[in-house]
Design brief:
Number of strands: 9
Shape: globular
Number of domains: 1
Strand order of the largest sheet: 1-8-9-2-7-5-4
Distance between the termini: 46 Å
Strand content: 25-35%
Structural class: alpha+beta
Low-confidence stretches: none
Order of helices and strands: EHEHEEEEEHEEH
Radius of gyration: 18 Å
Largest sheet: 7 strands, antiparallel
Length: 150
């Protein structure tokens, strides 16, 4: 089987949140959804995960409708179930009970077996001064790299 190099990232996640724990979850998808993701037509920038009735769901993940799909096509922003084991679900449930904690997707990719996988992280939102500090560190590193090249 040819290796598919689909790697959809949430680039804003590390800037907006303090990432604490990460998990890898499978996704329950329909046929047209997986075909669109294989074509690279998905976005997780505005997505977040919720806990509902003992299950973890990803909400607001955009998967473009499959162009060759008929009336069986999926809805672009429907909730999709994440497949985790019970121990991980219980840990996530305890984490989300604290105010200010959230669960965000980091990366959508295909495993070696061809399954769609989603890396999710337990996160806390950063304050404005934390974001400014990160930008300052990034600028300092860039300046040091420029000085080293000369």
């Amino acid at each position: 089987m040819a290796k598919n190099e689909i790697n959809i990232r949430n680039k804003k996640a590390k800037f907006e949140y303090h990432l604490l724990d990460t998990y890898t979850a499978g996704m329950q998808l329909s046929g047209t959804e997986i075909k669109s993701i294989r074509n690279g037509k998905a976005s997780i920038l505005e997505a977040y995960c919720i806990f509902d009735k003992g299950e973890v769901w990803i909400r607001n993940m955009h998967v473009t409708e499959y162009e060759n799909g008929s009336f069986y096509n999926h809805r672009p922003r429907s909730d999709r179930k994440l497949l985790l084991n019970k121990k991980e679900i219980n840990a996530i449930e305890k984490f989300l009970l604290v105010k200010g904690n959230t669960l965000i997707p980091l990366r959508l990719y295909f495993s070696d077996k061809g399954w769609a996988k989603l890396d999710i992280a337990c996160a806390q939102g950063k304050k404005l001064y934390d974001k400014r500090h990160d930008l300052k560190e990034k600028d300092d590193r860039r300046e040091m790299d420029r000085a080293m090249k000369r």
